[in-house]
Amino acid sequence: MNKQEIYAYLKSRKIWHEITEHKAVYNMEELSDVALPYPEADAKNLFVRDDKKRNYYLITVKGDKRVDLNEFRQKHHTRRLSFASEQDLMDLLGLIPGAVTPLGLLNDEARKVQFFLDRAFADAQGLIGVHPNDNTATVWMKTKDLLNMIEQHGNEIYIVKI
Question: What is the rounded distance in angstroms from the CA atom of residue 9 to the CA atom of residue 84?
Answer without folding.
Answer: 27
